[in-house]
Design goal:
single chain
């Protein structure tokens, strides 16, 4: 919720900063629109807090809009507008998919830390692995969330273990995104940051 409210302040500061940079009015307008999309994604995320039954596809879309949107916007800032709109959009898509895959990997890494996992659950920021765990171990997940009081540490550990066992499915989603990055990079001519993006892709794949 704090992220969503802070985004409004960010938009104001971002717009003010862009006005001081030597960008064309059209580029400033395009970048502002993309930031507004990112802020809207943060606001749309609010109803998902404490939402255990969101579909996996909707949860993944939410991640693409937020983490992926930030990655895509970062790429747009780094590019020369003279590349042309189609090329900029393609490279932004590559950056967005890389950022989303990285976000999923970071989430899986967090499952190894009991304190971080407990904090995520207690604040309603449910990891994607929980949605898969609900499918594979529905009774365990249901019992955990239907308790009248704060679950015991043992119950948290059981839930964390279930999520860890389902994390390979989160990895499958990330690998699908990285496959798309492969396809997109194959269409790029040499140069245009292709080598750097290929190295990022290789590093992300190796981490999985």
């Amino acid at each position: 919720r704090a992220n969503a409210y802070a985004s409004q302040y960010l938009l104001t500061q971002y717009t003010a900063t862009l006005s001081q940079v030597d960008f064309t009015p059209q580029l400033v307008q395009e970048l502002t629109i993309h930031l507004e999309d990112l802020i809207l994604a943060q606001i749309n995320h609010l109803p998902l807090n404490f939402h255990q039954r969101i579909s996996i596809s909707n949860a993944l879309s939410d991640r693409k809009y937020r983490a992926g949107g930030l990655g895509a916007l970062t790429v747009r800032h780094a590019l020369n507008a003279s590349l042309g709109a189609d090329m900029v959009d393609l490279l932004a898509q590559v950056g967005g998919n890389l950022a989303t895959a990285h976000s999923l990997r970071q989430e899986v890494v967090q499952l190894a830390d009991p304190a971080v996992f407990t904090s995520l659950i207690r604040t309603g920021n449910y990891p994607l692995a929980l949605l898969f765990a609900r499918t594979s171990q529905p009774q365990l997940v249901s019992d955990f969330f239907q308790q009248a009081h704060l679950p015991s540490q043992t119950a948290f550990e059981q839930l964390r273990s279930a999520c860890q066992k389902s994390s390979y499915q989160v990895g499958g989603l990330a690998k699908d995104l990285l496959k798309q990055v492969h396809y997109d990079l194959a269409t790029l001519p040499n140069g245009l940051h292709k080598a750097a993006l290929t190295n990022l892709l290789a590093a992300e794949e190796a981490a999985w």
